[in-house]
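Researcher: Structure for this, please.
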Amino acid sequence: MNTLDFLSISSAICPDRECVVFEGKRYTYSEVNERSNRLANALLGLGVTKGDRVAIIQVNCSQYLETYYAVAKVGGILVPLNFRAKEDELGYMLTNAEAVALFIGDRYVDMVKSMRPQLSSVRNYISIDGKNPGMLYYEDVISSASPDDLITEPSEEDTTILMYTAGTTGRPKGVPLTHNSFAFYVLENVDPASPDVEEKNLLTVPLYHVAGVQAMLAAVYGGRTLVMMRQFEVKEWMGMVQQEKTSRAMLVPTMLKRVIDNPDFDKYDLSSLRVITYGAAPMPFEVIKKAIEVMPNVRFINAFGQTETASTITMLGPEDHIISGTPAEKEKKLKRLASSIGRPMADVEVRIIDEEGKELPLGEVGEIVARGPRVMSGYWKDDEKTAKAFTKDGWLHTKDTGYMDEEGYIYLAGRADDMIIRGGENISPEEVENALYSYPKIEEAAVIGVPDPEWGQEVMAVVVLKKGEKATPEEIKECCRQKLSSFKKPNFVVFVDELPRNPMGKVLKRVLREKYAQPNSK
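Model: Predicted structure, token format:
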């Protein structure tokens, strides 16, 4: 089954059910199917064909869902772009993907206009929110095209999404994901659409993130109503749960913390919520413990995965969030809740290996590796990184370390590399370091992630100034703010006389992380 079947089946079973709700607009499954047909026919008329890449830069919106299905219907590949990315980052991704068309939200129109001379592959620009000179207008494109179904039969192995993820090299890596990448997970874990079962999903996780796409496609297959928010805002989120009576939601730990800590939490009726899935970053134990206490009717799910695995590969299920039983059983469950990412999903194999690639015994810490039909086959146009991403026998390096217990639960022990994960966003330390090194007062710099109760991790810059120079933390932060996306800039800056290094001259970031792990050390 491919992801096109998700929409066609749900449209046949529950055509008049609301498929998507977004800022006052409501579209049924039959309407979404027709609008995506119109857009697909329009794309064909613009010369978009099988295998072509079509990019989109926009916050969550109903048009995102329509655009995905329109591109899929012509056999194309959607390229969701991080709307927080800077011009240079966007230019790289669009050029690397060789996108032939670009859908643009209003807030990004000016930036795209300035980039157009460098985007040689892009032939058509489609403005999503309103009319703009030199661009097609989304609603005009839809209204002028045929609503007829397209006769396309994409293979389950065809790439349907090209998603970019941050890498330790400082440049985003393209991850091609097939129809099967999503279908295997959805078919295994989601009940199909039923005329008798109605659920509503509240989606705030951005659709440039694999977890957002997975949630969107799972909702369509399940015949659920997808309630979208442009971006997460805590009171708006609680108000939307109350207004729409949503039953499911996905949150990163930072979002969940803001919900349960909000002083107006008790003023909202959140009783319709039945399931909250969280993931994309480490969950502080105190946060999930409090969430379970203040939301006793909610079943919590901890989903662990990455872009390269089409999201979830292990899960800590609702039963693992119920702390009951004997004192020993309670202790075991509390330990799992504090540090386990659960057990592998049914369609994924997970192992713990040593540096030589040998599987380790239970309880021993090593690298977590995975393989299965959802795992990517390799990075987009990058054989070198692809070769490094897999073991000799085809297991994907997750670059996370951990161990497995006797019941198959996996416990995280830390990152195998230096990637920083802040609020679900991957941040390359090297990219931030490159920005720091461009500042004339800086002699050396090292960037690390330090624990943070709200964001999971925060970015810290450890800086050595050139002889005779003086600088303030605010000055260093401003330097980065001008060159990087806002979430990548350091939140903490410390000045030192020298960086710790090993005999080969490599900076010992482990030493820095140990030194600055406590709040009072920042």
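Researcher: Any notable elements?
Model: Residues 421-521 form a domain with the GMP Synthetase; Chain A, domain 3 fold (CATH 3.30.300.30). The chain has a mean pLDDT of 92.
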